[in-house]
């Protein structure tokens, strides 16, 4: 049973555990058994938080009995002052928190800037305040902030692990708000042991394809599978930096605690390209190669026509894909030399997309592109019955 009110020893305070990446991090922290995990759960009451955390653990690993006593649900809310926690509860946490891993965020490309800031910037600020309280009590080893490689925004060329403000602009509120959150973290680096972890596009597990989040590259892939694209707005030479969630979660846990550093959890020199992604999709979906056109030409001429023709389902798929078009002409690569040096001795590296792309589409088929969710614990069984044609 997941408990909430027991007196626990020093451990890790985790946000975002009911989300995609945060859930994977939670599963690894529980398996490692390196102290208790205090999990911030958006809930109004302790019993509601307990129940939600229990459902999360069961969906991840099948049963919460093995993890009894290791996870403590903390009912709260990133978007409210003090994380929605009474002062006494924050002090209780400050005395027991050795590490903070901040995974919670809005990852929506379509959410407005103010709403994105309320979660990604203000939420991070409140976590930093808690970190200061923990540090004052003398127990904080590291505040690990999970950011994104896309704080690089529209920067052209190589973006280093020490880079942040290089005069870039941003494509959406998500990128800008994560950039602003990193600025807050850096400002506290003189007084707090902070660390930044920057994943690129996170997709399903490389072994099973499992994901509950069918966004970013999944939307265009689904539209392509349904025959919605007669032309692809992209630069075939543009890099597509994609990493599977198992690599990212392994890296977050392995690197947590190395304060004062920023790591790119990216494919780096192993990044795919738009051209390769199209090739893989055509091969796996058994579809002819689409015409690849200039994104600017597509947006001005072809896309408006397509939105006035065809079925409503096709038009809806095209509209939902619009937010992701800019990510198929990004002129940016992400240097991950520091990360490779740190993770190499542990045998951790980002696999090339080609090596697990079929698994991503197998799982997308099994989950009907998110319309029939499959829990993580059942993912291997869902895709383990042999290759099947992938349908939209």
Q: What is the succession of H and E elements?
A: EHEHEHEHHEEHEEHEEEHEEHEHHEHHH
Number of helices: 14
Main beta sheet strand tally, sense and closure: 7 strands, parallel
Multimeric status of the protein: single chain
Task: Look at the structure and give the mean pLDDT.
Answer: 90
Quick one: how many beta strands?
15
Morphology = globular
CATH topology of the domain at 11-203 and 243-269: Rossmann fold
Q: What is the C-level CATH assignment of the domain at 11-203 and 243-269?
A: Alpha Beta
Low-confidence stretches: 1-6, 385-392
As a percent range, the share of helical residues equals 25-40%
Distance from N terminus to C terminus (CA atoms, Å) equals 39 Å
CATH architecture of the domain at 11-203 and 243-269: 3-Layer(aba) Sandwich
Which value, in Å, is the CA radius of gyration? Answer: 21 Å
* Strand-pairing-aware structural class: alpha/beta
Estimate what percentage of residues fall within beta strands. 15-25%
CATH evolutionary superfamily of the domain at 11-203 and 243-269: NAD(P)-binding Rossmann-like Domain
Strand order of the largest sheet: 3-2-1-4-5-7-12
Summary, kept brief:
With 392 residues, the chain is an alpha/beta fold. It has helices spanning 20-32, 46-61, 87-96, 113-120, 122-136, 173-187, 218-225, 245-255, 274-285, 295-306, 312-321, 337-343, 353-366, 379-383; strands at 11-15, 37-42, 71-76, 97-102, 142-146, 157-159, 194-199, 201-203, 231-233, 239-240, 242-244, 262-265, 272-273, 291-293, 332-334. The two termini are 39 Å apart.
